[in-house]
Every structure is written in C-alpha cells, then in structure tokens.
Amino acid sequence: MTDRSPPQYLTTLAEFAADTPLAHISEAARARARWVIADSIPVIAAGMQQREMRAYATGHLAEAAPGPAWVIGAGKRAGALDAALLNGTAGTWLELDEGNLFAKGHPGIQVVPAALALAQASGHAGADVLRAVALGYEISARISRAAHMRLVFHPHGTYGVIGAAVAAGVLKRFNAAQMLELINCAATMGMASSRQTLLDGATVRNIFTGHSGYMGLTAARLVECGFTGEIDGVGNVYGKGLYSDTFDPQLAVAGLGSEWLIAQSYFKLHPIGRYAHSAIDALEHLLTQVPGGRFEREALDTIERIDVAAYMLAASLAGKNIVSSFGARFSVPFALASILYHGGSGLKSFDDDAVANPEVQSLVQRVYVREEPSFTARYPREQPVTVRMTMKGGAVFEGRCTVTKGEPAHPHTPADLAGKFFELGEPIWGKATTQELYGQLMALENITDFRVLAGEMLL
C-alpha cells in the first residue's frame, strides 16, 4: 500500500509559507522584496510597449472578462488571471527584470504579477503583498536551488509556477495543509520550456513567465475547489528525470528562516541577459584605461579583435548571427559591440536600428568568446570574465569582472534603482504619476487596500 505521508521537507516548506508572519521575515529580505515589487512594475510597463506585446494584449483583452487588476503599461484593467498572464509576459521582454543566481533564474517576475493581480482583485493590504512576494519567492527559489535543472530547459515557466502559487496561497490565507497541496499541485503545472529560445532570439520565450503567474493562480483556485496533487510533486518533477535527475531536499530547507535567498538577488541596469552583464562590467573596466573613457566611432575600425574569457553560462552567449532586437539581448559579442558604438547600454543600443547598423555588425564579428574552466569553477559565488582588446597598431587593453554589478556583494545604489524606475516609467505615465507610484511603493506597508491604489491610477 502506498504511503500517503508527505516528505518532511515539503511539510516544512508548507508550514513556513503558511505560518511565517511579515515580522519574522528579515529586514534585508523585506527591503529586497519591496524593491523587487517596485522594480518589476516599470519593467513590465516598458515591455508592454513592444509591438508584439501591444498586439497580444489588445487581442487577449478583447476576449477577456473585465476586472480590477492593472494590465501594466496598457492603461487597461482585467481579471487577475488575465493580468498575471499579460504582465508576466511583458516583464521579461526587455531583459531588465530582477534575478537570482542561486535560484538559477528570475523568481521575481514570475511571482510579482500574480501577487499584484490577486491583491488588486481582492483588496489586500500592501503588507500582505510584501509577505506574499517574499514567501513565494523564497519557497520557489529554494526548490530551484536544490535541483540541478537540465540546461535544455529554460528556468522560466518551471519553478516560477510554485512561487506564484505560494504567493496566491499566502494572500488567500491558506493553512499549512492547503499550502502543502498547493505546492504539490503547482509543481506539476510547469511547462517544458526550451532554453534554445533565448539563443535563437525566439520571443515565444516571454510567455514562459506569463505562464507562471497564470498557472500559479490557477493552482490556488484548484486547491480551493478540492483538487489534490501528488504526495511529493516537487521531488517527482525535480528529482526523477523530468526537469532534473537530482534533487536535494535538505538543501531546500537548509537555513530556512535565517538565510533568505531573496536577499541575495540582483537587479539589472542593462537590458540584456544576465550573464552578458559580467562581460559589460569587464568592458567598462577596460574603458577606464582609454583616454576619455570611450572610443569615438571613427576609431572603432582600429580595433582588430576583442577576446572574452568567461564562465560557462556567459560563454554560452557567444552568438554573432544577430537578426532581431530580442536576439541581441542574448549575445555577448553584440552587447560589447553595440555599447562601444553607442557609448552606453540604453534601450536604443539593442533596438532594431542597432541590429541593422552595419558598423555594429562589423564589430560583432571581431568579438571572440570562449569558456575559461577555472572561471566556471568559481561560479556562482563569483562571475569572472576578462575582456582583452587588441588594436591594429599592436596596443592591448584589458579589463576584468570578478563580481557582477548588482549582486549583493557589488550592489547598485538606491539612486541607481530609482533612476531606472523613473527612466522607464516617466515616458509611459508622466512625471507626476511615476513620482506618486514610486512614493507609494517605497512605503508599501502603508497601503491599506490595493483596490484603492488601482482606483487612483490607471497604469
């Protein structure tokens, strides 16, 4: 007869998610969760402006029921499920969303859209949202850390379903037994997402995060209706050959309540895949040795070659056949070439015009990326990359990165993050609305009802 007793690690995670009050979440974790929420909203809004995303939102909302939740950046509202789907999809379009090397992906953008949408639909307080995001993020990040996901899978749309579901369960005040059922249900509701999508520049990849929010909310609804999950859905999916061949239950609960993975996350200022940021940091270090800190465009022809040595995941972004703006965001050669040409890494450095620019494309072909095994061995605690630029006259410049900017050991300043918020938000909402929204999000615990916040603003 099959033993119906759930494994202890899963019971521990469920009890932690159901019973941990906001006051027991560390100050650092609460502060980071507040910023994860605040950072995600303008990132979603900016992603929503992309041509394909606007078309998708318009078509989807034409067939969706009305509701109170923001479709952020579209100036419209919808039901929680539809808002979570659309906002999650928009949130990864520009590659500016928060991430976590230890969780091996981007928990925030898979949790925040579901939590915000449900909070606006049900009138939760800001403190409830903060708690839900912190706990949903933490449980899902720990599950991902404990697994050794096959690289064939893209991490979006996998463990993020669990994070979104836990956040929903927290907002719905699920008890430990319900939370256990919820985690087991959500574990089996991920998708077989392909990592090749990002290497091919395939924008279908952006639906993976929308899937997480949509299915996470659906999992919570299923549990409310009496649906049940496997006895150990997490262990079966993440440790028996589906996403991963191995899963360490003890690592999933190690330090639970004292070590917060959300406090070890990173924020992004460059609109490209995270691993390329290490190469950009190395390039920026190199440019400190160049008079004026940059090359004039007419001098770019004097660059003979650029050699990049990187840890394995950064070295995987070595593609040179860049034909789309989205594909440009996952190429170290394009990132370095376009930043050298434009003098910075703003959105215009990765748009369609930048991709079509023959001078940028010429420089792309002179960038050579290889893996350095000793660097891979130091990852993820360090993210070492070196960039060596050889000039036609024989001069050589070198730059290096040890810890990527934005990591906890090398953090961006609050001013950096606020600058990103306003840079993305003001073109869409205007200065006054952006300022009001920023102020409310920085004092998230003072929001008594997210329906009031939604009623005051149409984002």
Outline the fold blueprint.
Layout: H1 8-19, H2 27-48, H3 51-62, E1 69-71, E2 76-78, H4 80-90, H5 108-122, H6 126-146, E3 147-149, H7 159-171, H8 176-187, H9 196-200, H10 207-224, H11 233-239, E4 244-247, H12 249-253, H13 274-287, E5 303-310, H14 312-315, H15 325-328, H16 332-342, H17 352-356, H18 358-364, E6 367-371, H19 373-378, E7 385-391, E8 396-401, H20 414-429, H21 431-442, H22 450-456
Parallel strand pairs: 5-6
Antiparallel strand pairs: 1-2, 3-4, 5-7, 7-8
Helix pairs in contact: 1-8, 2-4, 2-6, 2-20, 3-4, 4-5, 4-10, 5-6, 5-7, 5-10, 5-22, 6-7, 7-8, 7-10, 8-10, 8-11, 13-16, 16-18, 20-21
In short:
The protein contains 22 helices and 8 strands. With 459 residues, it is of the alpha+beta class.
Can you give a write-up of this model?
- The protein has 22 helices and eight strands.
- The protein has a four-stranded mixed sheet. Strands 1-2 form a two-stranded antiparallel ribbon. Strands 3-4 form a two-stranded antiparallel sheet.
- It has 459 residues and is of the alpha+beta class.
- It has helices at residues 8-19, 27-48, 51-62, 80-90, 108-122, 126-146, 159-171, 176-187, 196-200, 207-224, 233-239, 249-253, 274-287, 312-315, 325-328, 332-342, 352-356, 358-364, 373-378, 414-429, 431-442, 450-456; strands at 69-71, 76-78, 147-149, 244-247, 303-310, 367-371, 385-391, 396-401.
- The radius of gyration is 22 Å and the shape is globular.
- The protein is 52% helix and 8% strand.
- It folds into two domains: 8-269 and 418-456, 2-methylcitrate dehydratase PrpD (Orthogonal Bundle); 274-401, 60s Ribosomal Protein L30, Chain: A, CATH 3.30.1330.
- The N and C termini lie far apart (55 Å).
